[in-house]
Amino acid sequence: MISLPGLKHNTGKTLMTHAVLLTYTVIALFPILVIIVNAFKSRKAIFKDPLALPTLDSFSLEGFEQVLGRADFGLYFGNSMIVTLVSLFFVLLLGAMAAWALTEYKFRGNLFLAVLIAMGIMIPIRLGTVSILNLMASLDLVNTLTALVLVYIAQGLPLAVFILSEFIRQVPKELKEAARCDNVSEYKIFFTIILPLIRPAMATVAVFTMIPIWNDLWFPLILAPGESTQTITLGVQQFIGQYVTDWNAVLSSLTLAIVPVLVLYVIFSRQLIRGLTSGAVK
Amino acid sequence: MADVKLSNIKKSYGNTPVLHGIDLDIKHGEFVVLVGASGCGKSTLLRLIAGLEDISSGELCIGEQQVNSLPPAQRGIAMVFQSYALYPHMTVFKNMSYGLKIAGKGKDFIDAKVREAARILHIDHLLERLPRELSGGQRQRVAIGRAIVRDPNVFLFDEPLSNLDAALRVKTRVEIGKLHQELGATIIYVTHDQVEAMTLGDKIVVMNQGRVEQCGTPLELYQHPATRFVGGFIGSPKMNFIDGKVAAIGSDHIEIQLSNGCRSRACVEAGDLKVGDSVTLGVRPEHIEERSDAGTLLSGDVSLVERLGEASFIYMTLGDGTEMVVRGSGESTVTTCERIEVSFAPHNAHVFDSNDRALRRLKPGNVHSTAQLAQLKAVGQETL
Ligand SMILES: Nc1ncnc2c1ncn2[C@@H]1O[C@H](COP(=O)(O)OP(=O)(O)OP(=O)(O)O)[C@@H](O)[C@H]1O
Ligand SMILES: [Mg+2]
Q1: Is the Cβ–Cβ distance between B283 and B323 less than 8 Å?
Q2: For an interface test with B, which of A176, A182, A185 has the most B Cβ atoms less than 10 Å from its Cβ?
Q3: pLDDT at position B367, please?
Q4: DSSP character for B384?
Q5: Mean pLDDT of all residues in A125-133
Q6: Nearest to A228 by CA among A167, A114, A145, A156
Q7: How confident is the prediction for chain A on average, in pLDDT?
Q8: Residue A185 in 3-state DSSP?
Q9: Parallel, antiparallel, or unpaired for β B278-283 and B240-249?
Q10: Is B44 in the pocket of ligand 1 (CB under 6 A)?
Q11: How far apart are the CA of B383 and the centre of ligand 1, in A?
Q12: Cβ distance B202 to B30 under 8 Å?
C-alpha cells in the first residue's frame, strides 16, 4: 500500500514522458514524411498542395524515373555506401581497440591520450577544414574517397572510444583473468571475449557514427567534389539549380537515400539487446 | 610433482602493503585451506600464486621452478573464481574447451576431455546451454569443469561455494572432497566457512592482516591455537575469552584469578609466566557445561538463547560484564534473564599471555601439536 502514491506519481510521469517524446517524434518525422509523400507526386501536385497525400491523379514516379535514369546516380550511391561502411568499420575496430587499451593497460601517457580523445568530442572537426584540405592536397588525396574515409574516421573515433571505454570497463575483470589463465593471448581476449560482450555498445556507436557520415555534405563538397567521387548528398545538389529546381528528382533521390541507412539501422538495432552479459558472474 | 613453495612473499598496492612476508610450504597433492577475516589478503595471495598480480618481493616456486615472472598460463595452475567468470556468450562445452582449443589440442582429445570432466561433475546434459540458462550450482560446476580439463598441477579456488544455498553447498563440498581424491592435484582453497575449512583441508592456513598467523592440520588448529586470534577464529561459535591474572603456578597447571572474581585452573605449561602476570583464559562454548561440578564455576545472567534443535547457544553475561556463549544441549530449559551456573574442566582451558601467544596445553585432546608429535617420535626412536 505504501507504494501506491509512488505508483500513481509514476504513471503520471510516464504519461508526461511519452507525451514529450511523441511530440518530438512527430516534429522530427514530419519533414521526412513530407519528402517521401511528395516524392510520389507529380510536379504540379507538389506545388499545389505540398501536404496532401498522392491521389490517383497526382501519383507519379517521374522523379524516380529521372533519378534512376541517370547512370551516375548509382555511382553516387555506391560512393556513399563505400565511404560510410569503410569509415564505420574502422571507427568501430579502432575505437574498440583504443578503448580496450586505454581502460585495460596502464602505460605512460594513458591519461594524456584519454584527455586528447575526450577533447575530440568537444571540438568539431569542421573547425579544422582548411588545414584538412591543405593536408589532403599535399597528400594528393583530394577528390578521392580515401580522403573522406580518413576524415570520417577521425570524426567518429572520439565518441566511439568514449562510449566503448565505458562498456569495456563494465566487463567483469574475472572474465579477462579467467581467459589469461586459459592462455588466451591479449588479442584473442579482445576479439573473442571483449568484442562479443560489447556488441550492443558497438551497435549504438555504429548508429551514431553512420548517420552523420551518410548525411554529410560539407566534406564531400570540399574534399571530393569531383564527378567520380560525389556522394549522394552532393549528387542531389545537381537537381537544385539557381533558377529551377527539379523537386521531383530531389525528393525522389532523398527518399532513395533514406533506404540504405534505414536498412543498416535495422541491422544494428537488432544487436541492441541488453543483458548480454547475464550469466557471466553470479 | 607440484609442490608450491612461498618464501617471504610480499605485496603492496602502491604504498599500501597488503601481504607482509608469507612463507608457506605446500606438498604435492595437499589440500590447503586459507581462512582469515575479510580483507586480510587471501584473494590477493591466491592471485599472486596464479600470476594475475605481480609479486612485490619474495620467491614463489611451483614444482622446481621459480615462477615469479611467468604468465598465469605457464604456471600449470587453474583458478576457479568466486564469481564463476564463465564466458557468457559461449556454451558450456565451449567454455570448458576454450583453453584446450587455444592450446591447440585435437578435436577428439578436447571432446573426450570435456565429456569426461562433465561426467565427473554431472553436467553432461548441460553442455549445449549458455551460462545464463544454468542455476548457480550448475554454473559453479562448469567453472570447476573448465579448471579440470586443463589438467593443472595446482587448483586455486576463491570462495567457490559462497554463492550457493546451504544444501547445494554441502553437496558441492562433498564433491570437491571426492574430486581432490580422484585428481590427486594440489588444491589451494579460500573460504569463510568453518565447516568447509575443517572438513576439506589437509592443512589450514589462518591469515590475519597480511600475515600467516598459524598453519597446521584442522585439529591442530582447533586444539592448539598458537595465538588468541586463531583461538577465536577457528570454531563456531567463537571461543570465549576472560581476562585474568596468574595467581599460582603448579607443576602441571596454573591458577588464574579471573576478572569476575572466580579462580580457575588451567592445565598449561607456565613457561616464563610469573605470578601476577595478566593473561587471557579461553574456553570454547562446547567445552562449557551446564552444570556446576565440571571444574571452574562461572555464574551469570542469560541474555539470549538460540535453539538450533541439536544444541542451544546460551549467551550469558558474567558478573563483571564479560559476554560468554555456552553450547548447551538441545533439550536445555534455560530461558532469558535466568541466572545460571556453568563450569568447564581445567584441561579444556586455553591460556594466552599478554602478547596473545598461547601457552602450551598439557592435556589436550586426541591430537598433538606438531612439536609434540616430533617430540614423541624422538622419544619413540630412542626407545627402539
Ligand atoms: N587493486 C587493489 N588496490 C589496492 N588495494 C587492494 C587492491 N586489491 C585488494 N586490495 C586491498 O588488499 C587487502 C586484501 O584484499 P583481499 O581481496 O586479498 O582480501 P580477502 O582476504 O580476499 O577478503 P575477502 O574475504 O573479503 O574476499 C584489502 O585490504 C584490500 O583493500
Ligand atoms: Mg577474497
Answers
A1: no
A2: A182
A3: 46
A4: -
A5: 93
A6: A145
A7: 86
A8: coil
A9: antiparallel
A10: yes
A11: 51
A12: yes
B65-66, strands of its sheet edge to edge: B16-26, B4-13, B57-62, B65-66
CA torsion sign for A161, A167, A172, A178 is negative
Three cell numbers written together for A17 = 514522458
Residue ranges per domain, chain A?
A: 11-60, 69-277
| Interface with A, mutate which of B83, B101, B135, B157 (most A CBs under 10 A) | B83
Is the whole model's pTM more than 0.80, yes or no? no
Fold of A69-277: MetI-like fold (1.10.3720)
CA-based torsion, A268, A272, A277, A278: positive or negative:
negative
pLDDT at B370 over 80: no
B98 close to A (CB below 8 A): yes
Sign for the pseudo-dihedral over CA of B34, B36, B37, B39: negative
Mean pLDDT of all residues in B304-314 = 93
* Nearest chain B residue to A178, by CA: B85
Count H helices and E strands in chain B, helices first: 9, 20
DSSP state of A247: H
Are A110 and A150 in contact, with CB atoms under 8 Å apart? Answer: no
CB atoms A175 and B87 under 8 Å: yes
Q: Which whole number is the average pLDDT over B1-15? A: 90
Confidence of residue A157 (pLDDT cuts 50, 70, 90): very high
Contact status of B132 with chain A (Cβ, < 8 Å): yes
- CB-CB neighbors (< 8 A) of A184 in chain B: 98-99, 102
B210 pocket-lining for ligand 1 (C-beta < 6 Å): no
How does DSSP assign B347-364, residue by residue?
GG-EEE-TTSBBPPBSS-
How many of the other CB atoms lie within 10 Å of CB of A180?
A: 19
DSSP string, A31-64: HHHHHHHHHTB-HHHHHH-TTSPP-TTTB--HHH
Within 8 A of A177 by CB-CB distance, chain B residues are 47, 50, 52, 72, 79, 81, 85
Alpha-carbon distance A104 to nearest alpha carbon in chain B (angstroms): 13
B88 close contact with A: CB closer than 8 A:
yes
CA angle A168, A172, A174 (to 5 degrees): 130
Burial B88-124 (b: 16+ CB within 10 A, else e): bbbbbbbbbbbbbebeebeeeebeebbeebbebbebe
- B128 vs chain A: nearest CA distance in angstroms? 14
Show the CA angle centred on residue B94, arms to residues B88 and B97, nearest 5°.
Answer: 130
AA identity, residue A145: L
For residue range A179-193, list pLDDT tens digits in order: 998 888 999 999 999
Amino acid B205 reads V
Q: What is the pLDDT of chain B when averaged over all its residues? A: 88
